[in-house]
């Protein structure tokens, strides 16, 4: 009898553990997706304003310093990181803003149809 209970508990633990790990993975992917969207958006904004001459020299430095003052403890928005965000946007803008292909449509279909 004790072995049967032990087996049932072990199966329950394994099932719950699997659900926890899967949800942790999904949460991490969602966070990464949001962070990439933020970096892309910041990069676009910075690119649009620096490359078209709207902002002068030193604008990124000023923005970075003010962000640090207004959001103490903020990490990842130093001058070099903001410039990297701009580069990220400029590098991926061509790929992101193109006409969808048949492969893209199949991928979207697979992502929207999820098994229970």
Describe the structure.
The structure is a single chain. By secondary structure, this protein is mostly helical. 78% of the residues lie in helices and 0% in strands. The protein has four helices and no strands. It has helices spanning 2-51, 59-70, 79-96, 102-112. The longest helix is centred in the first third of the chain and has 50 residues, at 2-51. The radius of gyration is 23 Å and the shape is elongated.
Question: Mind summarizing the main beta sheet?
Answer: none
**Poorly predicted runs:** none
Span of the ends, CA to CA: 34 Å
Order of secondary-structure elements = HHHH
Name the overall outline. elongated
Radius of gyration: 23 Å
The average pLDDT is 88
The percent range for helix content is over 70%
Number of helices: 4
What is the strand tally?
0
Protein structure class: mainly alpha
Strand residue percentage: under 5%
């Amino acid at each position: 009898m004790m072995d049967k209970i032990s087996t049932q508990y072990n199966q329950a633990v394994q099932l719950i553990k699997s659900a926890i790990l899967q949800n942790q993975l999904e949460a991490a992917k969602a966070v990464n997706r949001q962070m990439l969207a933020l970096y892309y958006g910041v990069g676009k904004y910075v690119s649009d304003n620096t490359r078209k001459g709207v902002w002068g020299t030193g604008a990124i430095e000023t923005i970075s310093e003010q962000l640090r003052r207004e959001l103490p403890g903020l990490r990842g928005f130093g001058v070099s990181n903001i410039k990297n965000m701009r580069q990220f946007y400029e590098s991926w803008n061509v790929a992101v803003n193109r006409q969808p292909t048949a492969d893209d449509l199949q991928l979207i279909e697979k992502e929207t149809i999820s098994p229970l």
